[in-house]
């Protein structure tokens, strides 16, 4: 799943009526193999796209792309995207790090799927060039139920990472602390 935070705004996990998101919904979806949705939130346009390639024993291979742009003109705001993977207690997950810092994949096993790998490709800019600016951190934590994922991320947020785009001032941004967790919950 995906959560996002525009600095100065609220942590978003779902889009619902009366929460300030101006528009959200599927633009295209065939109910099985592909879909495109768009969320407009305080000057941002988040677009998620997925496609499924049939094959294998468990539904095929899925690809998912997330694009974030600004509406109108003006400087691009600082945005944190939080991708999450959860098993709902029915399997195991293990982070796979690249260079000891970037979460490159999550390897796991689940009764329904067997062994699987979810790969996170490095972000790219328009036209396929490398991302202008990106920074990474991750949190591996237990949570007493999927309904508590937003609380887990909210309590793990730290404005301690530094964003240093070339030729621009350094800014702090929100990321998750690798030692975060829910208050009163034992680590897992």
UniProtKB/TrEMBL annotation:
UniProt keyword annotations, A-Z: Endoplasmic reticulum, Glycosidase, Hydrolase
Domain of life: Eukaryota
Tagged with keyword Endoplasmic reticulum: yes
GO process annotations (BP): oligosaccharide metabolic process; protein N-linked glycosylation
Cellular localization per UniProt: Endoplasmic reticulum membrane
Family, per entry: Belongs to the glycosyl hydrolase 63 family.
Protein name, as recorded: Mannosyl-oligosaccharide glucosidase
């Amino acid at each position: 799943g995906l959560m996002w935070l525009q600095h100065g705004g609220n942590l978003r996990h779902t889009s619902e009526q009366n929460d300030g998101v101006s528009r959200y919904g599927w633009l295209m979806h065939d109910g099985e193999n592909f879909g495109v949705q768009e969320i407009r939130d305080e000057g941002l346009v988040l677009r998620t796209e997925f496609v499924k390639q049939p094959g294998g024993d468990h539904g095929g291979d899925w690809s998912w792309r997330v694009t974030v742009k600004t509406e109108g003109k003006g400087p691009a705001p600082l945005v944190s995207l939080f991708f999450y993977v959860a098993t709902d207690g029915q399997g195991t997950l293990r982070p796979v790090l690249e260079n000891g810092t970037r979460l490159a994949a999550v390897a796991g096993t689940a009764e329904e799927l067997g062994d699987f790998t979810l790969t996170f490709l490095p972000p790219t800019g328009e036209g396929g060039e490398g991302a202008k600016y990106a920074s990474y951190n991750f949190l591996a934590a237990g949570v007493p139920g999927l309904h508590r994922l937003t609380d887990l991320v909210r309590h793990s947020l730290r404005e301690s990472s530094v964003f240093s785009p070339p030729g621009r001032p350094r800014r702090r941004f929100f990321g998750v602390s690798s030692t975060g967790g829910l208050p009163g919950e034992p680590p897992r």
